[in-house]
Design brief:
Elements (H helix, E strand, L loop, with lengths): L1 H11 L18 E6 L3 E6 L2 E6 L4 E6 L1 E5 L8 E3 L9 E2 L1 E8 L4 E7 L5 E7 L2 E9 L13 E9 L4 E8 L18 E5 L22 E2 L2 E10 L2 E9 L6 E8 L1 E2 L1 H6 L2 E5 L9 E7 L7 E7 L7 E7 L14 E2 L10 E3 L3 E5 L3 E9 L2 E8 L4 E7 L20
Parallel strand pairs: 12-19, 20-25
Antiparallel strand pairs: 1-2, 2-3, 3-4, 5-6, 5-7, 8-9, 9-10, 10-11, 12-13, 13-14, 15-24, 16-17, 17-18, 18-20, 21-22, 22-23, 23-26, 27-28, 28-29
Length: about 400
């Protein structure tokens, strides 16, 4: 998801922008997270958190430097912003930034100097207003492009819909010792408010257990989103020293946290030649339609030069009986079976050094914006539905190009 937002960022503005006389804007520190809501854009850097309007006018900004109290007690740390720079002894580094529009809040989570988790809930319309804060881990403890987080709506058996934070955390087999006492799994569902069972940010289920999906493999997550009641998660996985494979996980967001996580099943996504060692670099779902169409930038050989843009139908299987997965598991000693292989419907483009993609729909055309490592922005068109026999066109003749 950050790759898509990064593409928007690249399209909207020129590089190199503090508010200058010419209206340009310079960020203080490297960008860590970007999030877009209905009326605002939120950007977390190493030094500040910014709230901008959609035309990139500065609305509010907050320093991420302050005072850390109770630093010797990881679960009782308190971070305070202080206008006196001389008093600063800590930095709050944001790894999760989620606008919760239905609750009018912005969830900002990351780590302080000690490397332990800390979260703030801010007013969505005015980030200078703090609603709540707590020392709690949500998402990764270190900045990582291999972790994703987003809000998931789960329709519970009571008929109510609960919103949770889904965190999918990059996993290394040689992970460092956890000194913060957390037991987050690889994939988790965590609360968004104090009224939910177990209090805000808790990942406990109704019975007090802590459901989650785990892996023993090296896993790098690339993207994730929810469409209707189905959650989609994309990752690169290397199990037991094997070559990389691209994995898709489906979850059915129904009944409860436990039921949602228990419902997971997956597939492996193939590159155009079906060879091993391909790697997913970027992802974008095509909006609308009965089929769930999705585009991905794949590295054919695991490097950066040989890349292709592929189109898949990722509509979920209607599986009633869940089978063990070779890379992910809910419970130890699950029987492992090979997942199904999904092959691309169309090779949209072969071009070197592609890094990100954004897909939109305009009438009968799917439009893809692709960014390359050398700064090139490519616009590609494909007629839909993909089931029809038609040529791939770039751009289509006698067709007005989308603005």
């Amino acid at each position: 998801m950050i790759l898509l937002l990064g593409l928007l960022y690249a399209v909207w503005v020129e590089p190199a922008w503090s508010q200058e006389e010419d209206g340009s804007f310079i960020f203080d520190g490297n960008i860590q997270q970007i999030a877009v809501a209905t009326n605002s854009v939120y950007i977390a850097t190493e030094e500040k958190l910014y709230q901008l309007s959609h035309d990139l006018t500065l609305v509010h900004s907050l320093t991420q430097r302050g005072i850390l109290k109770n630093a010797d007690q990881p679960d009782k740390e308190e971070f305070y912003r202080d206008p006196m720079e001389a008093a600063w002894n800590a930095t709050f580094r944001v790894n999760v930034l989620l606008p919760f529009v239905n609750n009018d809040t912005l969830i900002s989570c990351g780590v302080t100097n000690k490397g332990c988790g800390f979260c703030e809930v801010l007013d969505l319309k005015n980030i200078s207003r703090l609603v709540y804060s707590e020392a709690f881990q949500v998402g990764p403890r270190r900045s990582s492009r291999g972790s994703v987080s987003f809000l998931v709506d789960v329709k519970e058996d009571s008929g109510l819909t609960q919103t949770y934070i889904l965190t999918a955390i990059q996993k290394h087999r040689d992970k460092a010792e956890d000194k913060c006492g957390t037991d987050l799994k690889t994939i988790n569902l965590q609360n968004t408010n104090k009224e939910q069972n177990g209090d805000i940010f808790s990942w406990s289920g109704r019975s007090g257990d802590k459901p989650g999906i785990q892996t023993e493999a090296d896993v790098e997550f690339v993207d994730g989103f929810q469409i209707s009641s189905t959650v989609y998660l994309f990752s690169n996985v290397a199990s037991g020293g094997e070559t990389n494979k691209v994995r898709l996980i489906w979850l059915q967001a129904e009944t409860s946290k436990k039921q949602t996580l228990d419902s997971f099943h997956g597939a492996t996504l193939s590159s155009s030649d079906g060879g091993e060692g391909s790697r997913l670099l970027a992802s974008s779902v095509i909006p609308g339609g009965q089929q769930v169409l999705w585009s991905g930038v794949f590295s054919v050989d695991g490097g950066e030069a040989n890349t292709e843009l592929l189109l898949f139908d990722i509509s979920p299987d209607q599986i009633k009986e869940m089978k063990g997965d070779p890379d992910f598991y809910r419970y130890q000693h699950e029987k492992k079976t090979e997942p199904k292989m999904l092959k691309p419907k169309v090779v949209l483009l072969k071009h070197g050094h592609m890094t990100s993609v954004l897909a939109v729909k305009q009438k009968d055309w799917m439009v893809f914006f692709i960014r390359t490592a050398d700064g090139l922005l490519i616009k590609v068109f494909k007629r839909s539905p993909i089931g029809k026999k038609n040529k791939f066109l770039f751009p289509p003749p006698n067709t007005q190009q989308p603005d």
